């Protein structure tokens, strides 16, 4: 499976524990366990924002120590903020997905689309607009690679690169995050997902 950090449109550190659980479920995944995050860190996950884990702790994985992330002179590892109030404390979340039961694809379309047009274009193609968990699963488990930014169900725009190259994530294989653009005016492609019955 694959672990991915998630924060909502509102920006970082906006989820209490229960909202974090819900956010992962909404993206076709579950909140990650410490063991899953640890394995992801050992595989190179480096993320400087703290996120909830399934045991109610708040942690983040650092492979390249640097000043804003615990200090330059610290050892790489999973940094632990400890346990926080599940109702009042707000962080990001680490989600986990290993579930891939369908076809993930970039929809070839004659024009770029607003968010609503993107949703409709996938439906018209017999699919649904893809979720964040689905783009990470396709990227990690299938090596999906596409240098086209596309809408996803949560209103974010991302693209998966498994073969780094000049204009497409030159330094690392990653799911690149463009942001949460204006849904009515910003035009992008779209990633769709068709579940196998």
From TrEMBL:
Gene Ontology terms: cellular component: extracellular space; perineuronal net; synapse
Example GO BP: glial cell differentiation
Stored Gene3D superfamilies: Mannose-Binding Protein A, subunit A
Keyword Disulfide bond: yes
Location of the protein in the cell: Secreted, Extracellular space, Extracellular matrix
Database matches in Pfam families: Xlink
Domain Link, chain residue ranges per copy: 2-97, 102-194
Coiled coil: none
Record InterPro entries: C-type_lectin-like/link_sf, CTDL_fold, Hyaluronan_bind_Proteoglycan, Link_dom
Alphabetized UniProt keyword annotations: Disulfide bond, Extracellular matrix, Glycoprotein, Hyaluronic acid, Immunoglobulin domain, Repeat, Secreted
SMART domains linked: LINK
GO terms, molecular function: hyaluronic acid binding
Cystines in this chain: 48-69, 147-168
PROSITE patterns, alphabetized: LINK_1, LINK_2
Stated family: Belongs to the HAPLN family.
Protein name: HPLN1 protein
Organism of this sequence: Zapornia atra
Gene: Hapln1
